[in-house]
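Q: Could you predict the 3D structure of Stage V sporulation protein AE?
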Amino acid sequence: MEKIIWAFIVGGAICVIGQIMMDVFRLTPAHTMSTLVVAGAILSGLGLYEPLVKFAGAGATVPISNFGNALLKGALEELNEHGAIGVLIGIFKLTSAGISSAIIFGFIASIIFKPKG
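A: Sure. Here are the predicted structure tokens for Stage V sporulation protein AE:
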């Protein structure tokens, strides 16, 4: 039960940071998402994101900042295994399932629902 509470608090804190970026600093959603992805990659590079994932579970893996963590993690794993070309391989290898799912489900949603506009 305690893990659920911490997941809620950490995930909510990440979302609050994103909302503050849009409301106070007047950043667009695209700039906010990009900043959170880069922040996740930087925290991962400093070795701080994995302890956060172990502590908060889904509170750290569900927000967009985990995408930056996953990109860097995959790139570094493949860099060690395949050298410089591994950076590109690792980025796509580790994140391809999530990206593919977003594209497929977005396409299905566009067929089922009529967009306003």
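Q: Anything worth pointing out?
A: The CA atoms of residues 19 and 34 lie 13 Å apart.
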